[in-house]
Amino acid sequence: MTKEEIKATVLRLLGEIAPEADLTQVDPDVNFRDQLDIDSMDFLNFVMALHESLHVEIPEIDYPKVVTLNGCVEYLLVQAM
Amino acid sequence: MAEFVMPILGADMTAGTLVAWRKQPGDRVERGDIIAEVETEKGLIEVEIFTRGVIERLLVEPGTEVPVGTVLAIVGEEGVLAAAEVEAPTISTVAAGVPPAEAGRVRSSPAARKLAGELGVDLTSVHGTGPGGAITREDVEGAAAAAPAVSPPVPEPDRQVRLRQTIAAAMARSKREIPHYYLSTTIDMHRAMAWLAEENLKRPIADRLLYGVLLIKAVALALKEVPELNALWSGTQAVPSPAIHVGVAISLRQGGLVAPAVHDTDRQSLDELMRNFRDLVARARAGSLRSSELSDPTITVTSIGEQGVETIFGIIYPPQVAIVGFGKVVERPWSVDGRIVSRSVMAATLSADHRVTDGHRGGRFLAAVDRLLQEPSRL
Prior knowledge:
Number of strands of chain A: 0
Helix content of chain B: 25-40%
Distance between the termini of chain B: 43 Å
Number of strands of chain B: 19
Distance between the termini of chain A: 8 Å
Largest sheet of chain B: 7 strands, mixed
Helix content of chain A: 55-70%
Structural class of chain A: mainly alpha
Number of helices of chain B: 9
Largest interface: A-B, 18 and 16 residues
Structural class of chain B: alpha+beta
Strand content of chain A: under 5%
Strand content of chain B: 25-35%
Shape of chain B: elongated
Oligomer: heterodimer
Shape of chain A: globular
Order of helices and strands of chain A: HHHH
Radius of gyration of chain B: 24 Å
């Protein structure tokens, strides 16, 4: 997958978890939890959705690496290679 | 014969709108079957029945708002033909038994209210021809045709506004009637968090646990040691609950919150609790809870630690007699065997009804929660 495809997938999954959020306004370097009002249950669902969509298993210890859009895309790009 | 009534799904719920029937006359029903959908400010609620038998008669039409306690259907014993024999009220007699509308409140279907808002029709000036005088869409259309509106339409308060009003009423009542006392303790979460991290490392993503589940289970088990806190206030005294149904406060994206029950919390494994908690959060936010989940909590657990809050002093949700709060897990200097170390700690608080318990019992409860969290593998 290309970087843009991964980014589109991440945004789509975030949109499913926080349907009221305006994803066009997402700051790519700010924590999802802070700007999308995502809690730990939402985040777990997000990680599960990434696993189902991209077949990437993200261990808890790596959660801090995937809490921003840029960080998440970079992490998934490496994992998907 | 049994009556199926509009349930009360919260301390200050006064009425609900029957949206749809899931069962029809002649259908067999078992305890726990969902037989109707009711619209409240907390969303679309699936209403269960707690008797078994056969639906004999449906007394209220979908789209009708009725007060809590209104008989919605008659359920007969299986094999007993009672529909024609019992003095079951008809739709019109049920409606006649409905208390008169409160000042400023008009009985009408949701569709009629919506249409009235769109057409600028004042519902208080419309004659209702539906069950019990309820105003129907046709009544609104007729009124609009007879006297075209000249004033701008006044929008009906949306669900979020009504939810806020319901929370306001319940919390005001709680503060007015319940003499709260408040206790707090700081719990060393080192063992619990380390155990959880190790456990989740072994688990596939779908089976991972959130630490909130440990807290819910610890509260449920601690209530077995201090059962006075697991009770409901009734009139002049507290009635202990034989079952432990922990209500978990869930914030809604549109604002407001609900606190549905995780039934028999103390009997569930952590895995079961996690599955049920996830399901409950999803359904709460989708607006599709079940009636028993809203009516059964015997205590509430709330945590807004993820918002950075370190200490929570909750307001009891009547008729419950206690609420437990958990704050953010933070790193703090902590004394261990005479040495100062950095530890993950969390504030646990109890707000309890002083009519029912004293600080001594409340303190024992918080101590039990602390002790249980020191042995997470046994939860």
